[in-house]
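Supplementary Note 2. Why include the ligand at all?

Several targets in our set were suspected to adopt different conformations when bound, so apo predictions alone were not considered sufficient. For every target with a known small-molecule partner we therefore ran a joint prediction. The input for 3-isopropylmalic acid is given below.
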Amino acid sequence: MKIAVLPGDGIGTEIIAQALKVLEALGKDGLKLEMEQAPVGGAAYDAAGDPLPAATLKLAREADAILFGAVGGWQYDQLPRAKRPEQAILGLRKELGLFANLRPAKVFPELVEASTLRAEVVAGMDILILRELTGDIYFGQPRGLRRLENGEREGFDTMRYSESEIRRIAHAGFRAAMKRAKKLCSVDKCNVLETSQLWREVVTEVAREYPEVALSHMYVDNAAMQLLRDPKQFDVMVTGNMFGDILSDEASMLTGSIGMLPSASLDANSKGLYEPIHGSAPDIAGKNLANPLATILSAAMMLRYSFNQDQAAARIEAAVSRVLARGLRTADIHRPGTQKVGTAQMGDAVVAAL
Ligand code: IPM
Ligand code: MG
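The joint prediction is reproduced in token form.
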């Protein structure tokens, strides 16, 4: 099992280091993992003048899975778009055809009190957000900045989805729902957008092949509201790239901290890139403050989805639960009565709990 390890920027290096500790511990127990690191994002720009150097892309292409930290930093904000760190993750998704982004938002019972919502609203919540990742307004052409006749500047982007793109993510949504509570909510804005109208038509067609799944449709504004009102009504939510970006951040916070949520981005053959859904958090980088659990849980998703190592994945997840049950907390989830620990201590604790 060959893994390309791309730590990236900011807290990326610290959190990836913790996930590697956990994978190495499993390695000692017989899991055969081959890991190779490469720079990505701002770190790669600094080293090679390119956020996604050819060598990094090659390593990612040739690996069976990619473990990714985070990219971005204020020092890169003024660079032209093509050189910005975000282009690395967008490029990897596009180049590797990683169209299905799984973002589970599940509340650990120990962290119910860390949510900004009342415990009874979030306790037991278990949502899977399935976000389409290689289309939509993120990649649609034309896009750009232009000068209008009156001399004013205009920015424009294109939201677009082809039928086949919608169809394959819809299938992924129904398949995911079949493995869970068999409820799929498709999120769109079909009262306003043509793209969404096609989205809804195609999802409805695909639904005929999954008679056991209860399909519902929801406008994205309503979905944003319903996630706060009653998140437990949802099982699997399937949506486009842009809406999924926003709703998955929202859903993550219901669980107490964005620092807890892993993700998987899969291609048609379950090759995947695994990353925490949070960013590079430059404000806390290098301070041993970041929560490594989202990255450690991303490594668990990698073992499950790309390597079919369900047992090893479950071991990691159980170890995380045990550490939380023991009261260990990084700053983002710390509450009075729990024990505050740093990034490295949290990683060590998970290894010990394995
Ligand atoms: C995410 C991030 C990325 C996105 C950024 C870093 C390009 O917000 O993975 O959700 O918008 O997809
Ligand atoms: Mg995002």
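DSSP finds twelve helices and 14 strands in the chain. Residues 116-255 form a domain with the Isopropylmalate Dehydrogenase fold (CATH 3.40.718.10). Comparable summaries for the other entries are listed in the accompanying table.
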